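Quarterly update from the structural biology core.
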Amino acid sequence: MQITGRVYVKVDGDLLRSKQGAKLMYGGVRREAVIGNQVDGFTEEAVAPEVECTISHAADTSLAKLAAIKDATLTFETDTGKTFVLRGAFLTDPPELTGGQGEVPLKFSAISCEEV
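Predicted structure, tokenized:
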């Protein structure tokens, strides 16, 4: 059985030059234990889906275009055939370029995530 290794991150169909280590947080509900004299139960809090990746910066990489990403469709495709679609995706922080390494870490959040 193949285990997920490579992933491909696309924004509105455009493949990002994502390096190894891209992460998907599916989102949904975070539960926290409520404790009195014992565990009484739990509370729930909505959690937005997120994708974190680091891309390689090249001459054709536009930081302005990255910074403007909002209401996008982001796909997180795995080499095992699973694809996750994040709708209403947006970049959470302005992009930051690290000289010498040519890397730009990106963090996206979204309205929803579905496994297709």
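The chain has a mean pLDDT of 97.
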